[in-house]
């Protein structure tokens, strides 16, 4: 929660993958070092990380959404903060953005098509579960209605 003047937070960008479905993209922040913009992505998952293909997909999406305009030539530092060995504490692993790899436009399209199909299946199943849970929920007994004289209140 501490702020320092040389580090700035990034805005969130949306990368569309289908009708009404987007991936939010928001690097942790950026700073200037030796006259060059540097961008930080902190990968804070505790027990797992992205595999090399997932990192290349991530990097390709990040390059298309965030690394444009003033940030076109910025350097990326991808910081993996996972716990590599259970109960050994987190480790800091810094990967240069150029080492994350990229995928071609057709590979990205194929992967995002699969992701969109999975998201649609997940969303449909989630909606079905909610309908089922709502139907199975017993109505709460709120006691007698104070404004309905036929609700057991006698003179």
Would you kindly provide a written description of the structure presented here, covering whatever features stand out?
With 155 residues, the protein is of the alpha+beta class. 30% of the residues lie in helices and 22% in strands. The protein has 2 helices and 6 strands. The chain has helices at 52-65, 105-136; strands at 13-18, 21-25, 29-33, 36-43, 75-80, 93-96. The strands form 2 sheets. Strands 3-4-5-6 form a 4-stranded mixed sheet, with no helix packed on it. β1 (13-18) and β2 (21-25) form a beta hairpin. The longest helix has 32 residues, at 105-136. The N and C termini lie far apart (62 Å). The mean pLDDT is 85.
Oligomer: single chain
User: What is the rounded Rg?
Assistant: 24 Å
Instruction: List the secondary-structure elements in sequence, H or E.
Output: EEEEHEEH
Low-confidence stretches: none
**Widest sheet: strand order?**
3-4-5-6
Summarize the structure.
Helices cover 30% and strands 22% of the residues. The protein has two helices and six strands, in the order ββββαββα.
Which keywords apply here?
alpha+beta, 2 helices, 22% strand, four-stranded mixed sheet, 30% helix
Please give the structural blueprint.
Blueprint: E1 13-18, E2 21-25, E3 29-33, E4 36-43, H1 52-65, E5 75-80, E6 93-96, H2 105-136
Parallel strand pairs: 4-5
Antiparallel strand pairs: 1-2, 3-4, 5-6
């Amino acid at each position: 929660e501490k702020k320092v003047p040389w580090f700035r937070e990034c805005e969130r960008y949306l990368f569309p993958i289908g009708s009404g479905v987007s991936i939010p993209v928001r690097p942790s922040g950026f700073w200037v070092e030796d006259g060059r913009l540097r961008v930080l992505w902190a990968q804070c998952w505790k027990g797992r990380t992205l595999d090399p293909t997932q990192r290349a997909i991530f990097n390709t999406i990040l390059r298309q959404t965030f690394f444009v305009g003033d940030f076109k030539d910025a350097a990326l530092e991808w910081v993996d903060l996972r716990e590599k060995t259970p109960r050994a504490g987190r480790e800091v692993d810094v990967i240069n953005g150029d080492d994350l790899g990229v995928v071609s436009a057709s590979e990205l399209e194929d992967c995002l098509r699969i992701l969109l199909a999975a998201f649609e299946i997940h969303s449909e199943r989630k909606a079905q579960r909610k309908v089922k849970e709502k139907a199975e929920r017993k109505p709460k007994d709120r006691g007698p209605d104070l404004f309905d004289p036929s609700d057991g209140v006698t003179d």
